[in-house]
Amino acid sequence: MNTGVFLGSFYKTADAGWYKQRLSGLMYFLFLSFTILMIRLFYLQIIEGEEYRRLSENNCIRLQSIDAPRGLIFDRNRNLLVDNSPSFDLSIIVRDAKPLKDTIERLAQYINTPKEELMNIINSKKGLASYKPVLLKSNMGWELLAAIEVHLFDLPGVIVEIKPRRYYIRNKIASHLLGYLGQISPDELKSGKYLSARQGDFIGKFGIEKSFQNYLSGNRGGRQVEVNAVGQVVRVLETVNAVPGHNIYLTIDYALQEKAESLLQGVAGAAVAMDPSTGQILAMVSSPSFDQNSFVTGISHENWNSLIKNPMRPMENKAIQGEYPPASTYKIVTAIAGLEEGVVDQNTTFFCPGYHQFGNRVFRCWKKGGHGNVDIIKALAQSCDVYFYQVGERLGVDRLAWYAKACGLGVPTGIDLDHEGAGLVPSSLWKKEKIGVAWQKGETLSIAIGQGYNLATPLQMLSLTAAVANGGKLLRPVVLHSIETVEGDIIKIPQQEQIGVIPVRKQTLEIVKRGLWEVVNTRGGTAWIAHVDGLNIAGKTGTAQVVGRKKGDPENREKQEDFIKPHAWFVSYAPADDPKIAVAVLVEHGEHGSSAAGPVAREMIKTYFGETETEKSNQVAVQLTQ
Questions:
Q1: How many C-alpha atoms does 303 have within 13 Å on its Cβ side?
Q2: Which among 167, 221, 217 has a CA at the least distance from the CA of 197?
Q3: Cα-only R_g, the chain
Q4: Of 394, 450, 396, 456, which is closest to residue 422 (Cα–Cα)?
Q5: Could you report the per-residue pLDDT of 411-444, keeping only the tens digit for each?
Q6: I need a labelling partner for 59 at 20 to 30 A (CA). Which of 67, 266, 522, 561 fits?
Q7: From 328, 383, 446, 572, active-site residue
Q8: Residue 64 pLDDT more than 60?
Q9: Model-level pTM?
Q10: Distance of CA 290 to the CA centre of its chain
Q11: E strand or H helix at 612
């Protein structure tokens, strides 16, 4: 046998065996893999089929924000002023609402809203991520809610969320003090002041709501949810609860606040009350008021325009922003300056014939027939202009300005509210710098009785009056009594802060206080109408001219248009010997402080002490039953 042929046959047989062996191994491997795959498919499709069928419907995991309930606001006696109520808000997630046009058309029919209006809202939020809810309608009523819930399966991407909504219980009461909410603006988001805020959030825009935003806002929570193909929540995987904001307790007395609001109903003006020993604000009213609840879900352009175009300026807090000539209430400053500088003393008298001649000008007294011989106490009691013309003439404008500033005028008081006015204390330097002309000596006479360039806010005049009442201490006005957690733990109690001292001797202060007492408690006093037996009120009236009356103009103010009638002032405190409350009232175009502003202050003081006596009686009754 040929050796070559044998070897070739041998190798062919060996190759065939090797290939057969490899092919068998491959077949076993494929069979095992196929078996494992079939077992896995059986497990996924049969055993876990239902679960994965649910997940296969484009389910995904999302994070949803939970808004924190805003802190509540109370008065000093723990009467609830501002609460939260549940709001049913309609939103849409654009990413899930496909086709968007069809969804919007159906939704518009169900809620009876033009589809163009809904699309405009969506288009205005183009910068928002497509998976973030776009608010279409807030605080839906039960009828709309029912219409949405019934057709929710037909509205992909449409969701209804329950959110806490601000609710101002005492409608229009203390609206300027409490403030309101508004949607955060892009500039506010970029400012860094609202670290936890997001686009679409409502934040404090005014008043207490703004000043204590960081305490009231709380910390948002969140939940991890699984949603299906149309954005509907299938299940909640995990929840982190929101932390409610802190509760705010104010210094105001609701009964006094409500009374003051009713007394100023229908007029433009302000009334502020303070505890002169602590600086705590007991009431702060600006009239007319506005409805804070209209801002909760976003006020319409029409309503906003009606507010800002109202000539009575309802959106201005006149108590701290309104700047007016202080009129004869400023005579308190002139009296202090004259006595301290020695240009007059308690026995100095001037004769008032009803006018004062200065050069070729005649400065008239409010009392046409004059007051006769008057000393400083009688001049304060009867508000004799001629007396204070002569004191101002002897002092000069710059000494008057120094005392006015030392009494806290010309600068904000520092209250915890935004946009407080500073008023104006004129001086010779001020006029030269601002107007570019020299001061005229005759102008000082007008300044001495609170007219001319003088401007002050009701809160500034209240602060000055309270300082006279408490012996000369200028206290920073405060509206915050305390801040507490929901559980009642105290977070903050503001300390009484003295910001200055009136530069006045005790003897001078006693003379001024005697004059203020006679304003109310003698029949010749300009505020006898504010007299109340047993309350011992002291005060000062003022009538601030809005425009000058030219020679030949009619004296009868009833013939004048309302808008040029003088403003009416009255500042007061009680009891005169142990002051517990100080009150400042300004009635725009009220003409006379005695008739327009005095009665308001009188009734506020009566209300305050009526409440106090009732509380004392109740406390005694409780003690007797124990």
A1: 10
A2: 217
A3: 38
A4: 456
A5: 999 999 999 999 999 999 999 999 999 999 999 9
A6: 67
A7: 328
A8: yes
A9: 0.83
A10: 12
A11: helix 598-625
Which of 598, 601, 468 has the alpha carbon at shortest distance from 541? 598
C-beta of residue 564 within 8 angstroms of C-beta of residue 588: no
Q: How far apart are CA 138 and CA 555, in angstroms?
A: 56
The whole-number pLDDT of residue 5 equals: 52
**What are residue 189's phi and psi, to 5 degrees?**
-65, -40
Phi, psi of 181 (to 5 degrees): -105, 160
Hey, which bits of 205-279 come out as E strands?
221-227, 233-240, 247-250, 269-274
Of 418, 436, 430, the C-alpha closest to 455 is: 430
pLDDT digits (tens, 9 = 90+) for 446-502: 999 999 999 999 999 999 999 999 999 999 999 999 999 999 999 999 999 999 999
| Alpha carbon distance 261, 111 (integer Å) | 39
d(CA 52, CA 56): 6
Which tokens hold the place of 165?
Answer: 């909504």
Contact by Cβ (8 Å): 233, 225? yes
Phi, psi of 236 (to 5 degrees): -95, 120
Q: Which tokens hold the place of 619?
A: 């406390």
All residues at 6 or more sequence positions from 176 whose CB lies less than 8 Å from its CB, including other chains: 206, 207, 284, 285, 286, 289, 316, 317, 318, 319
Q: Is 418 exposed, middle or buried (0-12, 13-18, 19+ CB in 10 A)?
A: middle
- Going by C-alpha positions, the residue among 299, 271, 302, 298 that lies closest to residue 287 is 271
* 56: annotated active-site residue: no
In the prediction, which pLDDT does 37 show? 79
209 CB-near residues (< 8 Å, 6+ apart): 178, 179, 180, 181, 216
* Helix (DSSP H) and strand (DSSP E) numbers for the chain: 20, 23
Residue 518 structure tokens:
């006679």
Taking every pair of Cα atoms in the chain, the longest distance, rounded to a whole number of angstroms, is 165
- Token readout for 27 is 């077949």
11 or 530: which carries more pLDDT confidence? Answer: 530
Point out which residues pair with 475 in neighbouring strands: 498
| Residue 125: strand, helix, or coil | coil
Please enumerate, as own/partner, the contacts of 589-592 that have beta carbons within 8 Å and a separation of 24 or more.
Answer: 589/268, 589/546, 589/562, 589/563, 589/564, 589/565, 590/267, 590/269, 590/565, 590/566, 591/543, 591/557, 591/565, 591/566, 592/541, 592/543, 592/566, 592/568
Say which residue the tokens 């206290």 belong to: 475
